[in-house]
Amino acid sequence: MVNKAAAFQKGRQLLTDAVQKTLEGDLEAVKNLLSPDFEDNLNEIMEGNGRKLIHFAATGGHKHILEWMIENHADPNSLDNDGNSFLSLAIYHEKLEIIKYAAESYPNLMALKNKKGLSPIHIAAETGNIEVLEYLRSIHPNIDEESEHGTPLEYALVWKKTDMFLHLLALGANPNGSQGKNIPPPLVIAASMNYTEAVHALVNANCNVNLPDKDGCTALEVASEFDFRELFEFLLERGATVNGRTILAAYKNNKTEVVDRLLPLTKVDDIAIEPLSQINPEIAEEFKVQGNEAFAAKEYGKAIEFYTKAIANNHKSIYFSNRSQAYISNFEPKEALLDAKIARVLDPSNFKAYLREGQALDSLEQKRDAAACIWQALKMTKDKSIQKVFVSTLKEIN
Q1: Where a domain ends, among 85, 115, 145?
Q2: pLDDT tier at 57 (50, 70, 90 boundaries)?
Q3: How many domains does the chain have?
Q4: Where does the record place its ANK repeats (predicted)?
């Protein structure tokens, strides 16, 4: 009766020894281990990932063993479980002699992609070996070859193979990468890595600084979100467009200084406010109360009249900001804007003045200036309703 456990252990030991001797380049030892059934053993012995001895000969860089195996009917087209041929594995392990042998003797392998969708030139870019890339490029010159997850340039970038990355750019690789694929544009990737050298190289290669990924995220948005200040300033300098998403990313991540940088508050022009000959605070307050009541009743025209009478008796910031709100509700944004600015001049601490100015500007389709004013109001009070107005305004900035 056959001892199955002993037979399994014997087979396992044969695999271990054969792989070890192949990697060591000991051809005689390999022959002795596989004798007499060379062909069967060469094509049947494999480790857990489906790699056969021919694959290990390639990764070890032993051409003499590889040639002997193929002469003894090892299948040169066999693939491991990841879809790698012996050529692909030689590239991963940077074995140039094997690469040349495979490409010249079995040119069909140059066209194969593994299960990750990687061609030989993709794999070379990932390893960063420029000599290997140049040899492969002499046979297959397309350095912008697509895969599901990008071009060779993008693989060099993701694996941070700087020399390879710069070399591919110098060769004329498309700095915008594989648009529309699963992987973001190179500039977005580089920004997310805070990879300053790559960002500068891509911009200098005339990439599209505003090219978004499939979710609409740009490099500037990434720099804004994570407060990568050097990249942020560089991208702005080189023409990156600030949109609402960019500002919102900084706001949601509590990058107050970034939001301040992106939403500078416009200075109020000199506004001539003619002083009153007589101030009547009590009368003014009564008119304000009446104005508030009219506003609550949605009688905006009457509210404007009452606030105007209050202003005629006392130039208080709150009266102007209240009348501004009434003008907004009465669809008179230009009048609302002027009142809000006067309210801001009279009392820079009146957060409602900034809020009304922002709302008036929003009605006038001046979205970014509107957001700047609302942002100022929000910094002065943490009112959740103002937060909602701010976020809503940002979403309208293209």
Answers
A1: 115
A2: very high
A3: 2
A4: 49-81, 116-148, 215-247
